[in-house]
Specification:
- With 382 residues, this protein is an all-alpha fold.
- The chain has one domain.
- The chain contains 16 helices and no strands.
- Helix 1 packs parallel to helix 15 and helix 10 packs across helix 12.
- It is globular.
- This is Acyltransferase.
- Pfam families: Acyl_transf_3.
- It is found in: Membrane.
């Protein structure tokens, strides 16, 4: 039986992409009153939390075909993944390179302390080649800071079918222990010989760290029936308490972690965020009201364009900073940044993403026919 697409999870990804946009908007031009920033509504500005949400969602969605014995062959899986991630990425990189070349000599019209780190590298051949590889350890500040997460997305995608063998064969205790070990080792960062860390979170130790979140997502997919049963088995009051706790963990785990610092602080912060994300994920899978809201036309549209929104919003923010002679009034700048990013994302989705997705599906079907419909070698075991 063909897997049913969970469209509400696309909407969740769209909200996460919007959160990253608002996070960068806040960094470039703080417009919101401090009451908003320090209130629970601050979860809308959680850029780092949103990226962890991306990783857990990727693990969840990628795991479903393997868990349903519908996992493709490794080559088919990889080519579809490349078409889905890499082609739109390379085109957005090209756009960023051209704009950086054209505007890098300009002084930013506002918040120079924030923007001076970006678009100052010019056409550095070595750096461009590292960007094109998408798996190297490189300076993602150069052209588009959001690229750092795609480095890990691609690296972990390369080994995800192997991770699924462990997730499917082993009990939950073993898999959770594996997550803890990976997170601990990865959090040691440059103490391990796993990369120079010269980029923005693109070291190989960071990939080890973030792989644990893909596994968490895959485990949530494997045990989703249990999670849903737990949610349905408690009272409405308990569900509201869980939601409130999740909002607080998502928004404020960082404050407790800052006092510890180092690997322990990082594990505390992201551990609290992960618990919150799991609560939100179960709600998106189970709560009829939540599903109805997420499947509304506006959020569904935001979900469809989420990847392009993630790729292009920071390019537009940098363009506004370097192309303008004088800073815009704050509200007007925010309005242009948000609406312009959504418009750019929609254009990129229809002209770049959809053809890339169709190409990946076509390649996958042809490989499946070429394999004669035989059982793929990397499928769920046990």
């Amino acid at each position: 039986m063909k897997l049913r697409r969970l469209h509400q999870l696309d909407s969740v990804r769209g909200l996460a992409s919007l959160s990253v946009l608002l996070h960068h908007l806040w960094l470039s031009a703080p417009l919101l009153p401090l009451l908003f920033v320090y209130s629970p509504v601050r979860i809308a500005l959680g850029g780092h939390q949103a990226v962890l949400f991306f990783f857990i969602l990727s693990g969840f969605v990628l795991a479903l075909p393997f868990l349903a014995d519908q996992g493709p062959s490794y080559l088919s899986y990889l080519l579809k993944r490349v078409c889905r991630i890499y082609i739109p990425y390379v085109i957005s990189l090209t756009v960023a390179l051209l704009l950086a070349y054209r505007l890098s000599g300009h002084s930013p019209a506002f918040n120079g302390s924030f923007f001076q780190a970006f678009w100052q590298s010019g056409f550095a051949p070595g750096l461009i080649l590292e960007h094109l590889s998408l798996v190297a350890d490189f300076n993602t500040y150069a052209y588009n800071t959001v690229f750092w997460s795609l480095v890990h997305e691609m690296r972990i995608s390369l080994i995800f079918p192997l991770l699924m063998l462990t997730v499917a064969r082993r009990r939950i205790g073993f898999n959770l222990l594996l997550c803890l070990v990976l997170a601990f080792l990865g959090s040691l960062g440059d103490l391990l010989p796993l990369g120079t860390g010269q980029g923005y979170h693109t070291s190989y130790s960071d990939t080890v760290y973030f792989a644990s979140f893909f596994i968490i997502g895959a485990l949530a997919a494997k045990h989703r029936s249990l999670l849903i049963a737990l949610y349905l088995g408690v009272t409405t009051r308990t569900r509201w308490l869980a939601f409130g706790a999740a909002v607080l963990l998502y928004g404020y785990s960082k404050y407790g972690a800052d006092k510890l610092g180092g690997p322990a602080g990082r594990l505390l912060e992201d551990g609290g965020t992960t618990l919150a994300i799991l609560v939100f994920l179960v709600m998106a899978l189970t709560s009829e009201k939540t599903i109805r809201v997420l499947n509304g036309s506006v959020l569904s549209f935001l979900g469809r364009i989420s990847y392009s929104l993630y790729l292009y919003h920071f390019i537009l923010i940098l363009t506004l900073a370097y192309a303008l002679r004088e800073p815009l009034p704050g509200p007007l700048y925010a309005l242009i940044a948000v609406l312009g990013s959504i418009a750019l994302a929609a254009a990129a989705y229809y002209t770049i993403e959809i053809p890339s997705i169709r190409l990946g599906r076509m390649v996958g079907r042809r490989l499946t026919r070429a394999e004669g419909g035989e059982t793929p070698p990397l499928r769920r075991a046990g």
